[in-house]
Amino acid sequence: GLLDAKFKAKGRRYYGAIADPNTLSNTQVQTLLKTEFGAITPENSLKWDATEPSRGSFNFGNGDQTVNFATSNGRLVRGHTLVWHSQLPGWVSSITDKATLTTVLQNHVTTLVSRYRGKIYAWDVVNEIFDDSGNFRQSVFYKVLGETFVDIAFKAARAADPAAKLYINDYNLDGPGNKIDQLLALVNRLKSRGIPIDGIGSQAHLILGQVGGVQAQLVRLGATGLEVALTELDIRIPKDVTSAKLSQQQNDYATVTRACLAVSNCVGITVWGVSDRNSWVDSTFPTYDSPLLFDDNFAKKPAYNGVDGALN
Ligand code: G3I
To answer: Containing H/E element for 268?
Structure first.
């Protein structure tokens, strides 16, 4: 792909985007994935509610379709995500004893990671485990098992696919504060007790004109010696969208691209959508719009030129 090839020429591994059967059904999405992007993250199909809706009963239809599209087109895959408090079926959140939850967690991680062994570049093993104050989120995993749930998940993932890079992934790591401090402290504890962690994902769901902090925090993440990546990049525009705002977005995308290039172990960038017509922003933030590189009609936006320009 074009962006991907230019990014690789800078010594990076991939410039990626998301997909799933609902967006792959559009041939223009498929074409852009093939021409521009080198990695695919399944948007929803590998999450717990999609893969293990009831205990021990697994469903890989959509996950297989997305992973097969990626691998048959020579694209890398980021597996997203093994352990997350959201899109988590009720049967998991109602578990109250350690032994059961440990078994359930190990079985879920082992089953998913084994199924795609050899096909996944990196797994988001744990996702969004800190709240915005930097405390552990009070998920069923933390409440029942404490911090150990992280150890259990990473160890099971490593055992099931020793070649996959294992990531911790979170949002709001774009500015200083207790959240990134606590995430870094946890990474250090994991390393010191020998837990197999390879990477830190910074989601980077950003707002127009507020991207100046990305590089400094990425430098801190990279200083752990682990690989780092921007895993869910988008830059949403407060309505109404104007041409001035679209050129600000171009600058912002360039700034974020350069932030990754400034950190030698920033291996990849994934944008959280191909076209503005398929972004989570529309439903979650009704007063924002147009966060991606291609518009509703799949035409390149100024934002695309922002990335491209930073890579030239
Ligand atoms: O699958 C059901 C379908 O059966 C039902 O008919 C339909 C009706 O609403 O909902 C479908 O589920 C939706 C699901 O996406 C699959 O399309 C959910 O409503 C919807 O809430 C869900 O949104 C996803 C969101 O995660 C859930 O938290 C977004 O597509 C996805 O882009 C978003 O991605 C997250 C990352 O995983 C983690 N970081 C934040 C990021 C943005 O929220």
So the answer is: strand 266-271
On the question of pLDDT at 212 being above 90, the answer is yes
pLDDT at 1 over 70: no
Q: Which of 36, 43, 52, 128 is catalytic?
A: 128
Atom number, ligand 1, closest to the C-alpha of residue 44? 16
With tokens 């792909």, the residue in question is 1
Expressed in angstroms and rounded, the spacing between residue 82 Cα and the centre of ligand 1 is: 15
Question: Is residue 86 within 6 Å of ligand 1 at its C-beta?
Answer: yes
Annotation marks residue 52 as catalytic: no
Q: What is the ipTM of this complex?
A: 0.94
Place of tokens 């020429």: 9
pTM of the model as a whole: 0.98
Can you give the pLDDT at residue 182?
98
> How would DSSP label each residue in 34-87?
HHH-SEEEESSTTSHHHH-SBTTB---HHHHHHHHHHHHTT-EEEEEEEEESSS
